[in-house]
Amino acid sequence: SNSQLKQIVAEAAFRNRICGGGTMVPCSSAVAFTVAILSTAWATKCESSSTSCMVPEKEVASEIYATQLIQSRSGRRIKQFGDDDSKKKCTKAADVIFLVDSSGSVVKGGPDNINKPGKDGVMETRKFIKKVVLGLKLGSDKKSTRIGIGQFSGRKWEDTFPNHRYETVEIALSEGTTEEAVNKATNAMKWHHKGHHKLSDPMTFTGEGIDWVLRNKAMFPSARENIQKMLVIVTDGKSNSKWKDYDQADYSPRKMAKKARDKEIDVVAIGIQFPPADEAAIKELESLVDDPEKQLFRLEEYAELKKVVEKITTYACDTTRAPTPLPTPVPTPLPTPEPTPEPTPLPTAEPTPSPTPLPTAQPTPLPTPVPTPLPTPMPTICEKIKTDLVFLIDSSGSVGQKNVDSTAKFLKEVVKELPVAADSVRVGGVQYSG
For the segment 212-223, what is each residue's pLDDT rounded down to a tens digit? Predict the structure, then answer.
């Protein structure tokens, strides 16, 4: 048939492209690659017969999906197009944590709709995280990004206080260094409602969840020093926390998010299904971030998460608050060399010759009776007037120890000429700098 002929032609073309030319070269991967791209029916059949095979999403490139099919059949990792880290969209280092709402409202219609597209928020979040990771260069070195994932919810306060909080580590920040590890962790994510976690209608405790990622050793406490930190919060409603009613610590989402930002963590929030008329809920959502226009994304449903993949990836790559470089470029040696040569000759040359030659030269040539009465009445006047004399002395970095010594010598010479006493002249000296 025409379809079979097209498949044979396409197969030959892909064999030629992938295997390096020449139809005589055996390349089973090319065959599987061609079949995967051209046969949607085969892919659908694959889904129903194998748990490791997945139906391709519309926005996923067919060649990437075909490679996934080859992997699932062969049981081994085959390098995908786009796997080259040098071609990743972002190669900046960051520690990124996804804090995911796992409350009862995340899956529309309850447990019967688990794994149903458009209704299972946990499933849509898994796909979202995977797509963001595709654009990041993961690794453990200081030039790569690490990923951490945690889910938060909680039990009803009235039934379980004070054990109402519930959070789960899906992958620790120290372990999220490869795409394979992150994908494995996201695939294993379970909704907190009943089943594995055995929670009945779990609550949304956003503030407690943020507090948890700040304190749990697998999360931000294990973040690397001087590396950009980013928290992505995915939530579908206003917090149910009743910390006020139970006289607990302030776990308001606003305060906890500010605490995170004060720790130089960039907070990005994705609010899903927030009613526009619920002003209190919108206000709480906006309070999570510094700049709602750049760091807040509001969606109508979980299926729309794919719309913000590029924005989140770009933000993770472009946002740099790096506090370390700021104080570094302001070096200490700059102000030191410039002022040093200028003040050095000024205080040394002027004060030293002025007092010394004047009194010495005048009394010597003149007759003895003239110089004798001159200095005598001067201290007499000082003795009659009580004087408090304070010397305020510059002691900044440009003065130097040599000039400090010269200033001290100068002060001694001045004090010698004064009738220093408790009931006459009192002298004080103060150095200043900053």
Answer: 999 999 999 999
